[in-house]
Amino acid sequence: MGYLRASAVARDESALPETDDLGDTIAEAVDWLASRRRHDGHWVFELEADATIPAEYILLNHFLGDINDEIEGRLAAYLRRVQAGHGGWSLYHDGDLDLSATVKAYYALKLVGDSPDAPHMRRAREAILARGGAARVNVFTRIALALFGQVPWRAAPLIRVEAMLLPRWAPFHVDKVSYWSRTVMVPLFILAALKPLAENPRGIDVQELFAVPPEEERDYLHNPTGHWLGDVFLILDRIGRVAEPLIPSWLERKAIAKAVAFIDQRLNGEDGLGGIFPAMANALMAFHALGVDRDDPRFRIGREAIDKLLVSENGHAYCQPCLSPVWDTALALHAMMEAGVDSDDPIVADGCTWLRDRQILDVHGDYVSKRPRVRPGGWAFQYWNDYYPDVDDTAVVVMALDRANSRAYGEAIERGAEWTLGMQSRSGGWGAFDAENEYFFLQHIPFADHGALLDPPTADVTARCLGMLAQLGFRRDHPAVTRAVAFLKDQQEDDGSWFGRWGTNYIYGTWSVLSALNGVGEDMGAPYIRRAAEWLKSRQRTDGGWGEDCASYWAERRDEVKASTPSQTAWATLALMAAGEVGSDEVADGIAYLLNAPRSGGHWREEHYNAVGFPKVFYLRYHGYSSYFPLWALARYRNLTQGNATTTMFGI
After folding, report:
1. What values do phi and psi take at 614, rounded to 5?
2. Top-level class of domain 48-212+220-319
3. How far apart are CA 103 and CA 209, in angstroms?
4. What is the DSSP string of 56-106?
5. Which residues contact 140 (CB under 8 A, 6 or more apart)?
6. pLDDT, tens only, 187-218
7. What is the pLDDT of residues 81-130, one digit of tens each?
8. Which end of the chain, N or C, is surrounded by fewer C-beta atoms within 10 Å?
9. Separation of alpha carbons 307 and 54, rounded Å
10. CA 479 to CA 224: how far, in whole Å?
């Protein structure tokens, strides 16, 4: 794996980072990052997923009969470019073949006009058949194939729109799943009820991808977890299919009406349902199935929201899963302020004003199902997503505003902190969007083969909230702080690290937690914290950097690394500095790696994916991470070494 070191190895002091090099790199990175601001002071960088999203964009067009050859040609060029050497498509850079992504990419390319006999299509088809064929894809892909008439609807688990009518005390209710599941599932309920057939103007099929003809296949549904509950749910699925003809049509119509009302209320303008592509696409297909006119404002703005996600350059295009302006702006501001940009400089002042104006103050989102008395006051990830603010963004924004000017932004800070405190779960941790979203038995339903139906508290999100409370002056004996620290101690892995739910992976989680524990005044010499620091040191590579592969989300591959990356190196050095290790050899070598790593201005070269939507299923590459995080780490190192400090006062 290429790791360093016994830390006792002798060190050449001449290898320490040069002060001039450090200052020049920071100045260049600040200038570059400042030049990437939008006219109103915010930042938004590209957010890239895998081949699934651009493929689904093409499938959506052909479902609707709304073909755009120019855009689809660029998307196809992107899909061909990211096809891997194994013949298929991966979930992240240099990853294993993912069968579902490969089937969708193949179908999309065939819809665009690629011949099945073309070499790249033949290689993909052979790879799919070698893995059992298209019948082995995940649930969402089987539903997509059913919508195009490629598999019977029995290939998907039983999905009934009448679930919208269930009371909250029922075993299943839409409030019991995560926000992303909720916004994707509700329009999907409509599609499952109406079972529309794609327009598919060119009549394209992919029957050549099946090892057994789809109508003859009998092995579609599986227990997603292997737990006995999964077997029980499979039995209930079979019983439900027998009883399905007995469900009165009036009940289905009532449920569809409730689902439509849910969507209409949360359409979210040009930012789209839930602010995420899968929910937007399902809503548009549901409107089409319901016969909603193309000129209807709901349909028109839903289409516009999806098209806003496209990124096109140099003859290629891809579709982003969502937009990340609030997240990018808050993190970029932290890096800028760490680098010494004054709070009254327009770079900081304009960014903070933009963030303040994005605070959600009037809409009581879906979180009220568990927290009915909590006043709105959070921030969303996207430009707007009023029903779904998240505590991770809120905490990072509040810390940025507090650092810039706690007096000027005092009201926004107070409301953000109040909302975040109200979202703490009984366990002491925080989930991203909901409180107490821990109905783990639902992970065993056949529909949940992606393993990401819920939004339980996690270490990285909890750390961000704890860091915010610490920076705002909440004392160690405050009940919310005490419970959060206890939660984080309980979540620590045996090797000393913490799991990273939203960033890849243990390096991200450990950086998040150590930053928060330092901020709240934990003894950074405590044994459990030293174990975390030593784990980070043990993971450093021979080039001085850190890396961690997306495959680390599989337990048997948790130590896998392919290369050092600027983002992960920045997290590791920030984490070690939070632990009081600013003078260590490991931090100096990490800083030297960042100074020497290839970059263009303030953008470090980074191909590997650095974040996760759903572990094992959906990964992300934040293009901004390799800009503001390396700058942040370099600036903090300069600040601590020049100020003769051992650690930082901030919560992140």
Report:
1. -135, 120
2. mainly alpha
3. 8
4. HHHHHHHHHT---HHHHHHHHHHHHHH--TTSS-BSSTT--B-HHHHHHHH
5. 100, 278, 450
6. 999 999 999 999 999 999 999 999 999 999 99
7. 999 999 999 999 999 999 999 999 999 999 999 999 999 999 999 999 99
8. N
9. 11
10. 38
Q: What is the pLDDT of residue 10?
A: 36
Quickly count helices (H) and strands (E) in the chain: 22, 7
Q: Would you state the pLDDT for residue 18?
A: 67
pTM over 0.70: yes
Question: To 10 degrees, what angle do helices 410-422 and 391-405 make?
Answer: 150
Both tokens assigned to 159: 């999905």
As its CATH architecture, domain 13-47+322-642 has Alpha/alpha barrel (1.50)
pLDDT of 16 reads: 60
For the record, the structure tokens of 20 come out as 């001039």
- Domain boundaries along the sequence of the chain: 13-47+322-642, 48-212+220-319
How far is the C-alpha of 632 from the C-alpha of 33, rounded, in Å?
A: 11
pLDDT digits (tens, 9 = 90+) for 389-411: 999 999 999 999 999 999 999 99
Q: 446 versus 428: which is more confidently predicted?
A: 428
- Is 392 among the catalytic positions? yes
| 13-47+322-642 matches 48-212+220-319 in fold | yes
Catalytic residue among 392, 434, 549, 585, which? 392
Burial class of residue 500 in the structure, from the number of CB atoms within 10 Å of its CB (0-12 exposed, 13-18 middle, 19+ buried): buried
Residue 157 has pLDDT above 60, yes or no: yes
Structure tokens at 511: 């950086």
Please give the single-letter amino acid code of residue 538.
S
459-471 helix and 479-491 helix, angle to the nearest 10 degrees: 150
* Position 29, amino acid: A
